[in-house]
Structure prediction request, 321 residues.
Amino acid sequence: MNDTSSKSPSKVYDTIIIGSGAGGLAAAICLAREGQKVLVLEQHDVPGGWCHSFYLNGHRFTPGVHYVGLLGEGEATNDLYRGLEIANELVFFRMNPDAYEHVHIGEHRFDYPANFEQLIDRLSERFPKEKKRIRKYLNLLKKVSKELFSMPYIKGFWQKLTLPYRTRHFGKYALFSLRKVIGWHIKDPLLRNILNIQCGDHGVQPRKAAFPLHAALMNHYFQGGYYPMGGGGALIKSMTNTIKKYGSEIRTSTTVLKILLEGEQEKKAIGVQLGDGTKVFAERIISNADPGITYLNLIGKQHLSAKLQKNLKKRSIPVPH
Ligand SMILES: Cc1cc2nc3c(=O)[nH]c(=O)nc-3n(C[C@H](O)[C@H](O)[C@H](O)COP(=O)(O)OP(=O)(O)OC[C@H]3O[C@@H](n4cnc5c(N)ncnc54)[C@H](O)[C@@H]3O)c2cc1C
Prediction:
């Protein structure tokens, strides 16, 4: 194995990333491109986390990619894939623009069109009494999402001074649940359920989901959905190719058991211990694993503040779909 011995804490790698999910690989690309030597460690025998693809009876499945939104020219995901230098390797199929999302509730069926105005028209035709409220609610949802994503770009004194005004819809509704906000706007229970159907994507029930979370999710798909040729595995392949192109490394079937700490109060992460006992050291350690696993299993309860332990206890992990 090409690794640093447990007796020699010399740092071969600038950064170790625990987990090769899309998040871990995206971080690896950014760091490797900046000249860092990155090592990605993955417990599974294939990289990709939820985005990996597997074969069963000759069919390819991807557990965690059903559709991707905002892939039009100049849209966010398109920019992201270009920024990660993986866009040229990817081909996407546009899902039926007239019905990219099928809703089945009991005997009711509704198809989401891949266009904001068409969605309003189709819903208004089906629920004429709610016509005005549908437009108001969906416009609000769009504004809250836009304001949320505008925040990192609000720079400079004057822009910051006017932030409460620029993000006023977000500010007004951010602390309320989806169930509360939709309840204030939409009266028909079937219509509410149709509008909440994409809760399946973030995995949080309307009573627990923060309104901006759902707003961002729905806004992501207002222009419809796309599917990558080759499934989620194609996204992962292009990401691992880019990481290797920049001279960094991905090791599969390599479980991290522990994050090694150093310092007076053992506050600094200096390396990791693998399943076979090997220790690998780096300047920085990034965990792409779930926060519960990272803090409780890999770092250990004894190194956590009482406050963080309390927060972790409260935290329940939503499982989408
Ligand atoms: C059922 C489902 C459907 C989804 N559908 C869509 C969709 O249609 N469109 C969309 O855009 N998104 C979808 N998502 C969301 C998307 O798949 C995930 O958000 C994304 O893949 C998460 O990536 P991640 O890097 O955060 O984490 P993960 O994919 O969870 O990656 C974490 C990685 O860390 C590894 N790991 C953990 N612990 C260790 C350890 N100790 N040592 C080594 N490795 C470790 C794991 O094996 C895993 O590979 C869906 C998710 C699910 C679950």
